[in-house]
């Protein structure tokens, strides 16, 4: 059985907007999953259901073989398994210093003493936030805030990390740093689920791609296969990755897996 | 930017335990408030100013910091010093305006200077605390003083989110200004109303997302953070305590 199984999940907001409509999805442990789709296609709602903040009105959510009952008690347990990094780090950082903010989730997860110190050191080293630890969050740059927000969630030691638009408003260097964090997490066999509009990144990075539109999943599969499908790209309002556009334009025989591989060709 | 961050040179005093700084603050505050003479507030004022200068604050910075409260204080003191009467009275300076006598006497001047000294001393004591304690030390002190968690959490969240709302308001205001929203009185009032309502909506949406983010990190109604301050050495409190007793005792003398 997959690590995450969603069976016919539907979720409707109180204003009767159907955000998720009969979603079926399976994610393996350690997988790198990317969710793409237009704004309002249901990506964020899917993430909120996965981390237990929203309770789906129908369907089954199975995590690590356990059916989630979607009650407050389950949500309190779920946060140590599924962490969610919000698109806007401003909503996530609230403590008076970076160090305190990162410690918040770890303490709630029951860590104290040496274990807490170890966890803090590990997380701050991975996200390069050690030198920021005594600063108040509002003095940080946007990229730094994003790293602290990721550190705060990682401190809860989740097995699955959901990242909503992790590269939004980041400069090239900060984007590279974030990708480095994602790679480190992948090496630790964490399951990574990101929602993004950066189709070039998705093409090179993801093991599995989910294409969403109007609360439904249009297609699921490997990005190298799905993103060749022009009809799907048109229907989902996406654009073809640059590598594929160039390959097509130059009528190359083979399809490179990344821009670096393309440049070698 | 908050005043305590603008002049964060003084916050380099991180080797001091927050309770040590608090004891100095209490010593200066009680010294100022319980005095019967003007010498003690003067000593406190000079002492704290010298400390600020040693820590790298310039006279210009100090005057900038003190300017706003000082202006309110001077207005208040003027109303104490100034006497308005229909009858003539013994005064150092007196003018007659119509049927009224306006001036100030020895007694009113003494009273004004005494109150001004007390207020200035208390104000500088407060500046000593906020310029030497970063916000997390203030939060630590509030927790250790066993204030209700609700108040402390409100303090922490207000401090954090007020910066976001201020930055949002500034952006909104600039955006309105660039579209000539503040050209006339009528349009200014309308634009200001729209600004306030959009800030309110933004804060409600932000509060909703923040609550979700807190839940996602295991928030169960109580905020617990890492305690980064070591234990307090009692001997570090000896000097500020002696200073406190000395200032209070000196303040009881009729000088």
Explain what you see:
The complex is a heterodimer of chains A (265) and B (255). With 265 residues, chain A is of the alpha/beta class. Chain A has helices at residues 43-50, 72-78, 98-108, 113-126, 142-154, 172-187, 199-205, 223-226, 230-236, 242-249, 259-264, and strands spanning 4-12, 18-27, 32-37, 58-63, 66-67, 82-85, 160-164, 191-195, 208-213, 216-221. Chain A has one domain: P-loop containing nucleotide triphosphate hydrolases (Rossmann fold). In chain A, α3 packs across α4 and α3 packs parallel to α5. The mean pLDDT of chain A is 91. With 255 residues, chain B is mainly alpha-helical. Chain B has two domains: 3-134 and 230-251, no CATH class; 147-216. Chain B is 67% helix and 5% strand. In chain B, α4 packs antiparallel against α5 (106-132). The two termini of chain B are 42 Å apart. At the A-B interface, α3 of A face α6, α7 and α8 of B.
Secondary structure blueprint with pairings:
The complex is a heterodimer of chains A (265) and B (255).
Chain A lengths: L3 E9 L5 E10 L4 E6 L5 H8 L7 E6 L2 E2 L4 H7 L3 E4 L12 H11 L4 H14 L15 H13 L5 E5 L7 H16 L3 E5 L3 H7 L2 E6 L2 E6 L1 H4 L3 H7 L5 H8 L9 H6 L1
Parallel strand pairs in A: 3-8, 3-9, 6-7, 7-8
Antiparallel strand pairs in A: 1-2, 1-4, 4-5, 9-10
Chain B lengths: L2 H4 L11 H16 L5 H16 L4 H23 L1 E3 L7 E5 L2 E5 L1 H27 L2 H10 L4 H30 L6 H32 L21 H14 L4
Antiparallel strand pairs in B: 1-3, 2-3
Helix pairs in contact in B: 2-5, 2-9, 3-5, 4-5, 6-7, 7-8
């Amino acid at each position: 059985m997959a690590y995450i199984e969603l069976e016919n999940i539907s979720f409707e907001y109180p204003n009767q907007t159907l955000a998720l409509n009969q979603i079926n999805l399976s994610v393996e442990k350690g997988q790198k999953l990317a969710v793409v789709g237009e704004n309002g296609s249901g990506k964020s709602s899917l993430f909120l259901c996965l981390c237990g903040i929203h309770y789906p009105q129908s369907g089954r959510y199975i995590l690590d073989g356990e059916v989630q009952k979607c009650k407050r008690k389950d949500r309190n347990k779920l946060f140590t398994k599924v962490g969610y990094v919000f698109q806007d780090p401003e909503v996530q950082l609230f403590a008076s210093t970076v160090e305190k903010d990162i410690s918040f989730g770890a303490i709630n997860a029951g860590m104290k003493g040496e274990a807490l110190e170890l966890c803090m050191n590990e997380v701050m080293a991975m996200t390069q936030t050690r030198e920021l630890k005594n600063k108040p969050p509002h003095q940080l740059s946007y990229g730094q805030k994003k790293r602290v927000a990721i550190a705060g969630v990682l401190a809860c030691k989740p097995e699955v990390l959901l990242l909503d638009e992790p590269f939004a408003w980041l400069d090239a260097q900060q984007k590279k740093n974030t990708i480095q964090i994602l790679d480190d997490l992948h090496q630790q066999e964490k399951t990574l689920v990101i929602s993004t509009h950066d189709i070039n990144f998705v093409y090179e990075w993801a093991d599995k791609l989910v294409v969403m539109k109007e609360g439904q999943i249009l297609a699921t599969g490997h990005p190298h296969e799905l993103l060749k499908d022009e009809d799907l790209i048109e229907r989902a309002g996406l654009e073809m990755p640059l590598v594929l556009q160039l390959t097509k334009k130059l009528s190359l025989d083979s399809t490179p897996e990344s821009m670096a591989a393309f440049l070698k060709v | 930017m908050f005043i305590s961050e603008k002049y964060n040179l003084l916050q380099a005093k991180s080797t001091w335990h927050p309770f040590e700084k608090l004891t100095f603050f209490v010593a200066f505050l009680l010294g100022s408030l319980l005095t019967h003479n003007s010498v003690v507030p003067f000593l406190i004022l000079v002492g704290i100013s010298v400390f600020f200068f040693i820590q790298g604050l310039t006279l210009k910075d100090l005057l900038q910091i003190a300017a706003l409260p000082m202006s309110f204080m001077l207005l208040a003191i003027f109303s104490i010093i100034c006497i308005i009467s229909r009858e003539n009275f013994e005064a150092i300076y007196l003018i007659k305006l119509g049927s009224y006598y306006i001036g100030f006497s020895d007694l009113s001047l003494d009273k004004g200077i005494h109150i001004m000294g007390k207020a200035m001393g208390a104000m500088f004591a407060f500046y000593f605390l906020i310029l030497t304690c970063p916000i997390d030390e203030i939060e630590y002190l509030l927790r250790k003083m066993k204030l209700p968690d609700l108040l402390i959490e409100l303090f922490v969240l207000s401090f954090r989110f007020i910066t976001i709302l201020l930055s949002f308001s500034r952006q909104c205001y600039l955006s309105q200004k660039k579209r000539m929203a503040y050209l006339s009185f009528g349009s200014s009032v309308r634009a200001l109303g729209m600004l306030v309502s959009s800030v309110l909506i933004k804060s409600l949406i932000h509060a909703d997302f923040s609550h979700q983010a807190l839940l996602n990190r295991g928030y169960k109604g109580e905020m617990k953070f890492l305690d980064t301050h070591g234990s307090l050495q009692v001997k570090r409190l000896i000097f500020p305590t002696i200073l406190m007793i000395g200032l209070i005792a000196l303040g009881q003398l009729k000088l």
